[in-house]
Amino acid sequence: MLKFSDVNMSFGSVTALKDVSFDIDKGELVYLTGPSGAGKTTILRLLLREFKPTSGKIIVNGQEIQDLRRKDIPGLRRSIGAIFQDYKLLFDRTVAENIAIALAVKGVPENEWFDHVHDVLKMVGLPKQSELFPSQLSGGELQRVAIARALVVNPKIIFADEPTGNLDWETASSIMDLIYGANDHGRTVIVATHHPDVLKRRKGRKIELKKGKVVADTK
Ligand SMILES: Nc1ncnc2c1ncn2[C@@H]1O[C@H](COP(=O)(O)OP(=O)(O)OP(=O)(O)O)[C@@H](O)[C@H]1O
Ligand SMILES: [Mg+2]
Questions:
Q1: Whose CA is nearest to atom 1 of ligand 1?
Q2: Which ranges carry the ABC transporter domain (predicted)?
Q3: Beta-carbon neighbour count of residue 203 at 10 Å?
């Protein structure tokens, strides 16, 4: 479902990834681990086609994406629910509007937005916060909104980049449980994290990176 073949990625003189290869099947739970600067976020950004690899092949849903045409990039991104550490929410829009935007981008008819937004906010435990603005929420709540926005369009693949960031362990656990729930529903889930506690919470495949190289893969 997702495949890297001998992928190299350099930013100027910095080598972020070196000969990285892996193959992830549908429904897998995969942790990308390794110290800061190891290349975890770079892998997720390549999968979203934020930039092209310096060399190598990347396949998502059976399609080679490294040479994808610009007009085909939004289609790729719609198949992926991405959750970032900095949430990437719009701060001048309400919680409900932030989530509805994902539905609009996917082309869901407007008269269906309210129900979808309501259902997903209930799922992440924020049914009463829909009309608040992001600046009125706590860090854990913001992360829940980011998860709601990723899940509302029912993507086949979920990426989460350090989803537990600076959250306390109780909040972090409940965030991870939402992500694991998506995996229980058959979604392929990739979590980039260097928190050992997250890795211990649920068993999954670990792809460990060091200085841009895969040094272990428990597949
Ligand atoms: N856009 C960029 N321009 C230049 N260098 C970059 C860019 N993105 C990443 N890098 C470099 O590539 C390397 C890997 O970065 P990456 O963000 O993938 O690491 P990471 O494993 O996600 O680290 P962290 O755990 O701190 O988030 C780092 O040396 C980083 O400085
Ligand atoms: Mg990172």
A1: 11
A2: 2-219
A3: 10
